[in-house]
Amino acid sequence: MNYQNKTLKLVGQETFEKLQKYVNLIEHHNKEYNLTGFSGDKLWEEGIYESLVCLDFITNNLKQNNFKLLDIGAGAGFPSIPYLIWKPGTQLTIAEPRKKRCEFLNEVAQNLNLNFEVFCSKVQQNKGSFDIITARAVGSLAMLLDITTNFKNSHLAFIKGPKVFDENKEVNHIFEIKKIKEFENKNIYISFKKI
């Protein structure tokens, strides 16, 4: 089964159609904004489906509904935009330092009628409060921990690959690491920490 079909099965027809529009926007603007190296089914797999499953895993583990989410360095909007399309009660803020990507994210909000805030600056300059802070493919746990020191009473939940264990060692094993079993052939982990 390809990842479009897996996504359809997970989210239903109405949400799938909105995700399709989002994918079309990414593919249409990818060169102009340098959004992602993914295209076709790989975009559905690593951009859409993995984002949905990972954030669903995070929210289920933290028992959160209708929460305030901060996505650090979302680029094309992964993992938060696919999740927001699926779960529109999420209060989303994206911290993205690259101006062109901010322009793209604002275009996504307008074209798909999504309600989220784009903070076009480094995350350290954001003074908001969030229930969950996430990031995917943004840097090491040490770096992510460093740039989130100004946030309090938040759950850090970063999507990581197999290097997560070495990264956690560098920060004295302060993160709880959980593997997402949905991805049998991949090593995708979530690193949790309450700050």
Biggest sheet layout: 7 strands, mixed
Structural class: alpha/beta
> Strand-and-helix sequence, N→C?
HHHEHEHEEHEHEE
Strand content: 15-25%
Coarse morphology: globular
What separation lies between the terminal Cα atoms? 39 Å
C-alpha-based Rg, rounded: 16 Å
CATH topology: Rossmann fold
Name of the level-1 CATH class: Alpha Beta
What would CATH call the homologous superfamily?
A: Vaccinia Virus protein VP39
Number of domains: 1
Give me the number of helical elements. 7
At CATH level 2, the architecture is: 3-Layer(aba) Sandwich
Widest beta sheet: strand line-up? 3-2-1-4-5-7-6
In percent, how helical is the residue content?
40-55%
How many individual β-strands? 7
Uncertain spans = none
Mean pLDDT across the residues is 93
Fold and architecture overview:
It is built from 7 helices and 7 strands. It has 195 residues and is an alpha/beta fold. Helix 1 packs across helix 2, helix 1 (3-11) runs parallel beside helix 3 and helix 3 (40-62) packs across helix 4. The radius of gyration is 16 Å and the shape is globular. The model has no long low-confidence stretch (mean pLDDT 93).
Brief characterization of the structure:
The chain has 195 residues and is α/β, with parallel strands linked by helices.
Features:
195 residues, Rossmann fold, seven-stranded mixed sheet, 18% strand, EC 2.1.1.-, SAM-dependent_MTases_sf, rRNA (guanine-N7-)-methyltransferase activity, rRNA processing
